[in-house]
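Sequence only, no structure available. Ideas?
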Amino acid sequence: KSLGFEYEKPKDFTFRFMKVEEMIKQKEEEIRNNNIAKRYEQLPKYKTKEVTISPFKTADEIINCGKALHNCIGGYVRKYADGDSDIYHLDVKGKLTCAIEVWENELYQAYIDGNKKCPEKLMKHIKKWGEKNKINLGRYA
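Reply:
I predicted one. Tokens follow.
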């Protein structure tokens, strides 16, 4: 149904099942990527001479962030695409440095490599960005 096909009885059911399953996954990925692109346009950004805070543009960016920072943010693709969580990356001089999650309009987490606490020199940028965008800083206030 999600692909708009009419019901049919294929002769090689196993082959057809695998093909349709692959097509469904591709369709879901396309929808997810479109949602992520829309979220990127809608969510707030921050920029100074050296520091930027940006939402993610693609699922691959999120996955690669998790690999680079050795954390689980790569598993947040679906939550981000569905609008259940807002995730961002903080870059210093163009280098990925910190992953940020905002959940229910509250700063939920901000970690550098290996899930280590974000240093205060970067937290001041996150706080400024949060205050500017009316994001509750919660325990980070």
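The longest strand covers residues 95-103.
Hope that gets you unstuck.
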